[in-house]
Amino acid sequence: MKVTEHIKQANGKTLFSFEIVPPQKGQNIQELYNNIDPLMEFKPPFIDVTTSREEYIYKSKENGLLEQKITRMRPGTVGICASLKHKYNVDAIPHVLCGGFTKEETEYVLVDCHYLGLDNVMALRGDAMKHEKYFSPTKEGNHYASELVAQIKDLNQGKYLHETIETPYNSNFCIGVAGYPEKHLESPSLDSDLKRLKEKVDAGANYVVTQMFFDNEKYFDFVEKARDFGISVPIIPGIKPIAVKRHLQILPQVFRLDVPEELITEVEKCKENKQVRQVGVEWAIKQSKELIAKGVPVVHFYSMGKSDNIKAIASKVF
Prior knowledge:
By secondary structure, the protein is of the alpha/beta class. The longest helix has 21 residues, at 273-293. Helices cover 40% and strands 18% of the residues. Helix 9 packs antiparallel against helix 10 (273-293) and helix 10 (273-293) runs parallel beside helix 11.
């Protein structure tokens, strides 16, 4: 079922969903299931599965030089989605990236998703590779998320890269895109960023999931401004509970977001990460309760592979 259909059928009730990260190559998928199992009691209608960018590794050669190789440390997004759909009878949403994929490779991924009965995809530009300061488009790939959205919409209409196929069996993907309440780190202003979001919606996006934020007013202001820009699709808030003290430095640096002074003060009082984790849970509970009271369609949690803190939050608000 499409995300938008889940929201419609909920009749105003706020839904619970979360995002997971595929395990690294060589790891057992059972660990992933062990983290998902405790969250299923909250009846998530859908689960997002991230896709990792390619990265370079270096291998020693016999002559003592290093050979540069390209690899993906966390493959398997589509396979995991199929597994989750089968195991839990839940809609699993693969993240599809511009970065690291040609348009041809993207088409193959989408065809596989269609064959597996996946009704939703999350269309993202993706981040720069680790060695890059700024995002660099893949040769023969989509440069922007709006282009990727357009390609998915074309496929829904039977328009493949090299031909148009008249068939009653076209895909009908519901397309999600990212939104940034505190603007994307590369955007010169929030208004400029909202123009880019409007382009994605105009290209065919059906809903928006926001980047994490710790101040709900940032989200509420973002939604109001988005509506003023003519963006009418559902805007789902994304929540990540702080879990370790170094998040105070890492998250603002990586995602260019603000952490409220009250939260900073509480985290800095903590002597160990167990206490930080509890502070993060309590803050996310407060955030979630306010968001639900304001009637958000879904509260979407970034689990990063661990579920104990997400369960602690969900048990208090769902």
